[in-house]
């Protein structure tokens, strides 16, 4: 059981309307958002921030944003967010070779140098202590403009919030997310962990 159980999707009409966004990204409303409904101001603010961060205003694609989210979630160890990020990357058209080899993004030919710079930025920014340095800054600016870097850090920061929320909450993971995680991450040892609905 999660630390706090999710509320019914109909609990807060405003949240329900905003949460239609997740039908596109994931195919369902996440239990994390349903739990945030215990304080609807939080669920609504979170969804609006999510929509703003994931909006495409430059060359950072929807698929790359979700791979950035996956690297960030992998660095922090949140299995719930790892599964959600890889599912969303799949739904937003990440190349099959990238999905199959996300763990090897640094060396696999399916990833460009620009994508590697973005994913290394995600890894460095998600570590504690933070390891963003002059080399990462240089590599980012070789491939991306300031606005695009802001978009990337928006994703990393959003998932910093989500990683802490879902790992602390022990949010029960949805079947669709499990399906995607098993397909792409299972061979590397991904499992539900505390998110299986019975650990707390």
From TrEMBL:
Pfam families the UniProt entry points to: CMD
InterPro entries recorded: AhpD-like, CMD-like
Segments forming domain Carboxymuconolactone decarboxylase-like: 40-120
Annotated signal sequence range: none
Name this polypeptide is given: Carboxymuconolactone decarboxylase family protein
Organism: Croceivirga thetidis
């Amino acid at each position: 059981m999660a630390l706090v159980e999710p509320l019914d999707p109909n609990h807060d009409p405003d949240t329900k309307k905003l949460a239609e966004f997740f039908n596109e990204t994931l195919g369902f409303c996440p239990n994390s958002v349903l739990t945030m409904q215990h304080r609807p101001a939080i669920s609504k603010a979170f969804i609006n921030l999510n929509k703003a961060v994931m909006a495409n205003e430059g060359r950072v694609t929807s698929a790359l944003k979700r791979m950035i989210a996956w690297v960030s979630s992998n660095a922090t160890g949140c299995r719930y967010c790892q599964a959600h990020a890889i599912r969303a990357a799949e739904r937003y058209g990440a190349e099959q070779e990238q999905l199959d080899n996300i763990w090897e993004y640094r060396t696999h030919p399916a990833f460009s140098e620009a994508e590697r710079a973005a994913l290394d930025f995600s890894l460095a920014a998600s570590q504690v202590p933070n390891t963003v340095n002059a080399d990462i800054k240089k590599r980012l600016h070789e491939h991306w403009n300031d606005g695009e870097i802001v978009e990337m850090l928006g994703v990393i920061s959003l998932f910093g919030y989500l990683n802490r929320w879902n790992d602390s909450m022990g949010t029960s993971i949805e079947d669709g997310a499990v399906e995607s995680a098993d397909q792409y991450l299972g061979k590397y040892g991904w499992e539900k962990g505390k998110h299986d609905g019975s650990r707390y």
